[in-house]
Design a protein that fits this description.
310 residues; alpha+beta; Helicase, Ruva Protein, domain 3; Tetrahydropterin Synthase, Chain A; 12 helices; 8 strands; disordered C terminus; translation elongation factor activity; Transl_elong_EFTs/EF1B_dimer; Transl_elong_Ts_CS
């Protein structure tokens, strides 16, 4: 049996493009035989996965998963290179499995999550399963992020928009959980997806931000009305700031399904709470938009085909 040295592992990695741990395990499985290790990695679908890692993966889906009791939820974003693969059944099955794992995970960040044992096959990690899936699907993929919410005294509601373009979780504290409360939670989750608020209430808005915004708006008002009294200028500032906050604070937004076009989300939630006889509050939300902040791959299709022919 050949000694499994760091140099041997490095050589196998360079030949196959597989991860370091996968190479080490492959060599151990075949007692250090390089050729057999290469075959082993190919059989496992791991050879070549790392070679795809340099490609930009900005497509994909944001997917949600709830616990059976509706008290816990997770939203994950898994990226692929193309929209075509993002709609692939194998890709979506993998994303569903990632969400199921993340729902029960104790990992605090994505690094710890990737190092966990894969629940469906504890002989490998989440990262190794990702590499195996990359090899099968044939393009780079990335488990980018996940976030969980839990509400023992109420429910967690999810909503996925446009096949995974946007994923939302909403934490609702309520003394009563009935169909009306669940419907309200679903409607508010849809509102979050559509209008992208930044906060639930104005109390969450950073005070330094408000101070700075008032200074900017006051300077603008003085330029527009240089001779106006201070009281008038301050009124203009507060009016404009109030308009801004109505757009970024969830409870102040106009409820998109309001029949009169005037009811706010806060008023809608209050009406449902009164109807259900519940003490009810919106606690927190998470909104993932797939690919936000990532560089999009932009290639000329004809040039790509020509490159492949060459």
């Amino acid at each position: 049996m050949a000694e499994i040295t760091a140099a041997l592992v490095k050589e196998l990695r360079e030949v196959t493009g597989a991860g370091m741990m996968a190479c080490k395990k492959a060599l151990a499985a075949v007692e250090g035989d390089m050729e057999k290790a290469i075959e082993h990695l190919r059989e496992q679908g791991l050879a070549g996965a790392e070679k795809k890692a340099g490609r930009i993966a900005a497509e994909g889906v944001s997917f949600t998963k709830l616990s059976s009791d509706g008290k816990r939820g997770v939203v994950v974003e898994v990226n692929a290179e193309t929209d075509f693969v993002a709609k692939n059944e194998k890709f979506r099955t993998f994303v569903d499995e990632v969400a199921a794992q993340a729902l029960n995970s104790n990992a605090k960040d994505i690094t710890a999550f990737l190092a966990e044992k894969w629940e469906l096959d504890p002989s490998q990690t989440v990262s190794e399963q990702l590499s195996a899936t990359i090899s099968v699907i044939g393009e780079n993929m990335n488990i980018r992020r996940f976030e969980k919410l839990e509400e023992p005294n109420g429910l967690v509601q999810d909503y996925v928009h446009s096949g995974g373009r946007i994923g939302v979780l909403l934490q609702v504290k309520s003394s009563v959980v009935n169909d009306a409360v669940k419907e309200m939670a679903k409607n508010v989750a849809m509102q979050i997806a559509a209008l992208n608020p930044k906060y639930i209430t104005r109390a969450e808005v950073d005070q330094d931000y408000l101070k700075n915004e008032r200074e900017i708006l006051l300077a603008a008002a003085k330029n527009e009305k240089p001779n106006a009294p201070e009281k008038v200028l301050l009124g203009i500032v507060e009016g404009r700031l109030n308009k801004e906050l109505k757009e970024v604070c969830l409870v102040d937004q106009v409820y998109v399904r309001a029949e009169d076009g005037k009811q706010t989300v806060g008023q809608y939630v209050e009406s449902v709470a009164k109807q259900a006889g519940a003490e009810l509050s919106l606690v927190r939300f998470v909104r993932f938009e797939t690919g936000e902040g990532l560089e999009k791959k932009n290639e000329d299709f004809a040039a790509e085909v020509a490159a492949q022919i060459k």
